[in-house]
Amino acid sequence: MKDTNNNYNKSLLIDHREKLIQAIKRIKHESDECWNAERETYIQSVEVESEFDDLAREIHAEYENLHRILEMEEDMDMERLRKEREKRVKQLRERERKIAVQGKDLERAIETLNSKLREEDSPNLLKDIKDLLKRCQVSFIPPPPVNTEILSGQFVGPLQYRIWKHMRSSLYPNISTLTFDPETAHPLLSLNSPFTSVWFQDNNEDPVKEGEDCNPRRFNYYYCLMAREGFMHGRHYWEVEVARKTAWRVGVAREDVCRGEMDSCTTANGLWTLALKGGVIQACTDPRPTRVPVSVKPVRIGVFLDCEKQEVAFYDAVTMMPLFTFSMETVSVPLHPFFNPCDTDEGKNTAPLNLFSPSL
């Protein structure tokens, strides 16, 4: 009986030792995972800090560029002011000199006449005085006046507005001038003649012409179109008016994006877009859209494409508040601005999508 108990206890001990060994292995595995996670997080923190440092340098460089532009404008304004100042002061000093010359002539005439008065009477005095009076027929003739009024409007005026207009030509990226590509437009989309406005029209009176039905560039399933302009390098920014619309979609598409039905109109199929759907703004991410919270529905959307950094960013173009940013992988084909005015939503979405071009 005692041997049986000893065997049982020994077996139980072996079993528990095995469980202990397994527990140690499991915890060791968890410890390794924990250490790896700690190391990866540390590396990520270093990388994030480095990326923020790069962004800080980039922002500083952008402001430095703006400062240089402002300094150049200031230098030109101050030089213009300096030249006008020198001109006016020189004219006044020259007038002062001419007046001083006349003053000395008048003083000499006075002195000459006074000296004659001090002479004693003589037979020739009367004749001398008459001759002297003829010679001393001098008078003060003021030189032409110099304009001394300094008008602020000539040098200051709406200075900030003026500088703003001057800076626009130096901005990078400047706002891109786009036009819609009618050859990519779905047959139920209508465009104005400058190709800057597009809307959905059920009874489109300008159907696709015969021979164009097989146009491989035309969207034939979704109510979409692209811009004529495509980009592979540089930074580009454009704005789209979406006011009075209940649904829209704008962004960027690969030049070779599918023109027919797709399993998803997302980044997985070469589309980086922002959309208004059901009163909600959403980024068309894969595998499901991402809601974009906004306090006020934007009336104009700004799209910024950075080909070098492979990013597409969206903004409320009125406030320039960032809305969403996509990170792209390397794209080896041109990227085109992409638009979808959507259907009329039972008459509630008849307003067009307009390419916005600022007046300044």
UniProtKB/TrEMBL annotation:
Residues 157-360 form the B30.2/SPRY domain. InterPro entries: B30.2/SPRY, B30.2/SPRY_sf, Butyrophylin_SPRY, ConA-like_dom_sf, PRY, SPRY_dom, TRIM/RBCC. This is B30.2/SPRY domain-containing protein. It comes from Megalops atlanticus.
